[in-house]
Amino acid sequence: MTTREHCYYHDTTQFYVLVKEDIFSRVAPLYEKGLSLRDIQTQTDISKTTIRKTLLKGGVNLRENRSTSLLKEWKTTGKQAALPPYGFGYLQGKVVPNPKEFKTLLLIRKLWQKGVNANAIATKLNSQRIPSRMAKEWSWNAVKNILDRLKKNQINFSGVDHEL
Questions:
Q1: What's the CA gap between 96 and 98, in Å, rounded?
Q2: What is the DSSP letter of 51?
Q3: Between 65 and 123, where is the model more confident?
Q4: Can you say how many angstroms the Cα of residue 90 is from the centroid of all Cα atoms in its chain?
């Protein structure tokens, strides 16, 4: 095949079919100028997937995606996507005790150490009008999840001021 656009006529509409070599010759210079795949797509009306595949087949090393580099930066600073355990929060990318929740966590641990079950703990927290993390009433399951973490020693109290 040649490297030119082929023109097909259908009634009054012209259809242009791009040959792969022609796509590469159009998009490679734009990519090397620093344009993103999305910018090239906007300028050429060629799909981003086609542009990416054509550049890779042509031997062009693609630049790192910006969102991937942000994810790597978050991982190095310690910021995680998941919420920290109840009683803790993020401060400058590190997990630290949350003053609003930590006292409640200590109360839950104290009651659990006395042998009180999850349902009774939830009832006591609700009767004292202590809100959960989402400002709702405590459920048996929410308390059970905290107790499971306590049983597995997944919550570290060392180095934390217990009087927050």
A1: 6
A2: H
A3: 123
A4: 15
The residue range of the domain holding 125 is 88-151
pLDDT digits (tens, 9 = 90+) for 73-84: 666 655 556 788
Looking at this protein, which amino acid is placed at residue 9? Answer: Y
Handedness of CA 139, 143, 145, 146 (dihedral sign): positive
At residue 150, what is the residue type? L
Kindly state whether residue 114 falls inside one of the protein's structural domains: yes
- 83 lies in some domain: no
Distance CA 96, CA 110 (A): 20
C-alpha pair distances (Å), 3 with each of 21, 23, 114:
6, 9, 81
- Domain at 51, CATH number: 1.10.10.60
Quick one: residue 82, left, alpha or beta (phi over 0 = left, psi -120 to 50 = alpha)? Answer: beta
- Which residue has 């054509």 as its token pair? 54
Residue 95 lies in a domain: yes
Answer yes or no: do 94 and 142 share one domain. yes
Tens-digit pLDDT profile for residues 116-163: 999 999 999 999 999 888 889 999 999 999 999 888 888 777 666 555
Count up the domains in the chain and report the number. 2
In a domain, 74, yes or no: no
